Each structure stands twice: as structure tokens, then as C-alpha cells.
């Protein structure tokens, strides 16, 4: 029996056919290094096709992702659309690894890897991680492989080819951030422009997430906005582990506005309709361009563009803010030039 099943419906087929085919063609050539540059949170179906093709040739693959094991989209696809089961998730225990054609692991566990592979795929697209390009290079170069593929929002490998996959599964642009600088001490008060934005978001019955760089600043923002509850006229919730189920329930309610204050972008993974984001203290040193770009990628993950906004609020314009804006703009520019999206 073949390990492959056909896709159940057309929606499960790969969207960006030319770019995906370019990746597949590269794998078949005698080349060693490939950068796949893609927008944040794009799907991993490109790599699924490659992995299944290499498995047919009995070649061993290491797939590195920092998604929680229960959230690994590629693994879910393998389980649902193929009959291939000769894989494992590596946590550092070397039991029964020799006969596995596909090993899935995360950054930390990959450092314990001693096997040799035909192809290593490092997927830095499907979720946000704090690992920088130099960290990723340092990891994968210590593992022996004939081919190295790294997918990220920018080229990571210092040599090799670059293939851009600028289109996402929703056929929409990635949101370019709006940068607002102010002389107001945002620890003490809300800039009038932000107040206006929040009133408009609520009037438009949208969901709003306010990101803060740390717990203390998030608490200050929550107190400020709570004082305006009667003017804004919507639910204002300070995100924590105890109220996550309440928040999820509220976010699923259509046409029900809500404002949520969060201090850690990794605590929130839910896809939300009609979402807007305001990044408070965007000039804080904790917000590098990678984190800011991935925050932009969170908008539009569910059902499309919907006139969503991402706002960087800061006292000073930083290079990281400018670079995040440049990265998102370039993705949209390239996708538009290819005729993949309408802006």
C-alpha cells in the first residue's frame, strides 16, 4: 500500500504553486544550502511535499520547528492525509531512532542530535521564536546533512540559493504597521490618537490586542484603559492564565468588541476575525524587528484582511520598527509584482 493519499479537497493543495515547485526542483538538484523566505505563520505544506518525496527515496530527514508538539501543522497533515508512520518526535532520548525516516524536534533537542541526514529543514516560519539567524546557523551546521533548508522571514544561511514564498494561504497582504510616535509619557496617559483608534475599533465591533513588553507595563496600560471604560464601552481584559478560556469564548463571538492587554506574544496563538493590534512601547529593547514582524503576521490569520491595523506606539522611532515595516512592505511588493495579491 502506498504511504500517500490524495488531498481530501482542493483547499488542502498548495496555494503558491510556482514557488513551491521551485523548492521541489531545488531539492532534486546537487545543491546544499537553501533559504526559503516567507511571511510569518505561513503553512508548511511546501515542506510536506518535499518530505514525502524524499521518503519515497528512503532518505532521512530532520524537521526542526519550535511549535508545541500538539500544534505542529506538518505532523497533523502527515497523520490526516498520508498513511506514513515511520516518524518520531525527538526529545533527547535515542531509543529506536535508527530506522526512522523522519525525525521532528525543536531547537533545544536538536543540539543533542548525533545522526546524519540527507536533508535538514529548519522551519522558523510557522511560529515565533527568539532564536536569531546566528543561533539557527550555529545549530544546523553542527548536524551532518547533505542538504540544509531554512525557512524564515529573511535569509538565514550565508550561502546558497534564495526562494521567496510571498503568498499566504489567505491570498491577502501581510499588514504593514502604522508607526505613531509621541512625546507623551505612555506610562502615565494614553495619547489622544490611540484613544480615538480604540473608540473606532470598538464602534466597528472589532477585537483589539494591546501588547506590552513586560508585566508591569501591561498592568499600567490596563489601569489607564479601565479608567476609560465608560467612554470606550466594551470589555477590557488583562490576559492571564486563569481567564484564558473566558477570553477564547469572547473572541469567538462575532460582532462583539473586546480589548485584551497582553505582555507576552507567545501566550496567545488563537486565530481571530476582525483583529487589530497596538504595540505599546514599541521602542522597548525587547521588541526586535523579528518579534515586531511576527506580531504583524498575527493579523489576518483567520478570514482575511478586513481593514485591520497594526500600530507601533513609541516615543522614538527605532531601526527595528523601521526594519519590520520594510520587511512587511517588501513581502507585499513582491507578491503584488507576481500578481499573487491585490493591494
What does this structure look like?
The chain has 343 residues and is α/β, with parallel strands linked by helices. It folds into 2 domains: 10-165, Tandem AAA-ATPase domain (Rossmann fold, 3-Layer(aba) Sandwich), CATH 3.40.50.10810; 178-337, Rossmann fold (3-Layer(aba) Sandwich). It is 31% helix and 19% strand. It contains 11 helices and 13 strands. It has helices spanning 17-27, 45-56, 73-81, 107-110, 133-140, 192-203, 215-226, 229-232, 244-251, 289-297, 319-337; strands spanning 33-38, 61-65, 87-89, 102-105, 117-123, 145-152, 161-165, 178-181, 207-211, 235-238, 258-262, 275-279, 310-314. The protein has a 7-stranded parallel β-sheet. Helix 10 (289-297) crosses helix 11. It is elongated, with a radius of gyration of 21 Å. The termini are far apart. This is Comf operon protein A, DNA transporter ATPase. It comes from Clostridium algidicarnis.
List the helices and strands and how they pair.
Layout: H1 17-27, E1 33-38, H2 45-56, E2 61-65, H3 73-81, E3 87-89, E4 102-105, H4 107-110, E5 117-123, H5 133-140, E6 145-152, E7 161-165, E8 178-181, H6 192-203, E9 207-211, H7 215-226, H8 229-232, E10 235-238, H9 244-251, E11 258-262, E12 275-279, H10 289-297, E13 310-314, H11 319-337
Parallel strand pairs: 1-6, 1-7, 2-4, 2-5, 3-4, 5-6, 8-13, 9-11, 9-12, 10-11, 12-13
Helix pairs in contact: 10-11
Organism: Clostridium algidicarnis
Protein name: Comf operon protein A, DNA transporter ATPase
Amino acid at each position: 500500500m502506498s504511504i500517500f493519499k490524495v488531498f481530501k479537497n482542493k483547499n488542502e493543495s498548495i496555494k503558491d504553486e510556482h514557488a513551491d515547485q521551485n523548492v521541489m526542483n531545488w531539492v532534486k538538484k546537487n545543491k546544499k544550502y537553501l533559504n526559503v523566505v516567507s511571511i510569518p505563520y505561513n503553512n508548511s505544506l511546501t515542506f510536506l511535499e518535499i518530505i514525502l518525496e524524499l521518503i519515497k527515496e528512503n532518505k532521512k530527514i530532520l524537521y526542526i520547528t519550535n511549535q508545541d508538539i500538539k500544534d505542529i501543522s506538518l505532523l497533523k497533515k502527515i497523520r490526516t492525509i498520508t498513511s506514513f508512520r515511520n516518524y518520531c518526535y525527538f526529545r533527547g532520548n535515542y531509543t529506536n531512532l535508527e530506522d526512522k525516516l523522519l525525525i521532528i524536534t525543536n531547537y533545544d533537542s536538536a543540539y543533542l542530535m548525533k545522526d546524519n541526514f540527507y536533508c535538514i529543514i529548519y522551519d522558523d516560519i510557522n511560529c515565533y521564536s527568539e532564536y536569531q539567524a546566528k543561533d539557527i546557523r550555529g545549530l544546523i551546521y553542527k548536524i551532518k546533512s547533505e542538504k540544509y533548508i531554512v525557512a524564515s522571514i529573511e535569509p538565514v544561511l550565508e550561502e546558497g540559493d534564495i526562494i521567496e514564498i510571498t503568498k499566504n494561504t489567505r491570498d491577502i497582504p501581510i499588514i504593514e504597521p502604522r508607526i505613531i510616535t509621541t512625546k507623551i509619557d505612555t506610562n502615565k496617559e494614553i495619547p489622544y490618537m490611540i484613544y480615538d483608534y480604540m473608540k473606532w475599533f470598538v464602534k466597528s465591533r472589532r477585537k483589539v490586542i494591546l501588547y506590552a513588553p513586560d508585566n508591569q507595563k501591561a498592568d499600567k496600560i490596563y489601569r489607564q484603559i479601565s479608567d476609560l471604560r465608560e467612554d470606550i464601552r466594551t470589555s477590557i481584559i488583562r490576559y492571564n492564565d486563569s481567564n484564558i478560556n473566558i477570553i477564547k469564548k469572547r473572541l469567538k463571538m462575532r460582532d462583539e468588541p473586546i480589548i485584551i492587554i497582553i505582555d507576552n506574544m507567545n501566550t496567545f496563538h488563537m486565530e481571530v476575525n476582525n483583529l487589530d493590534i497596538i504595540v505599546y512601547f514599541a521602542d522597548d529593547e525587547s521588541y526586535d524587528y523579528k518579534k515586531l514582524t511576527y506580531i504583524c503576521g498575527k493579523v489576518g490569520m483567520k478570514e482575511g484582511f478586513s481593514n485591520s491595523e497594526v500600530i507601533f506606539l513609541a516615543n522614538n522611532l527605532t531601526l527595528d520598527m523601521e526594519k519590520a515595516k520594510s520587511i512587511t512592505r517588501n513581502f507585499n511588493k513582491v507578491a503584488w509584482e507576481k500578481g499573487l495579491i491585490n493591494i
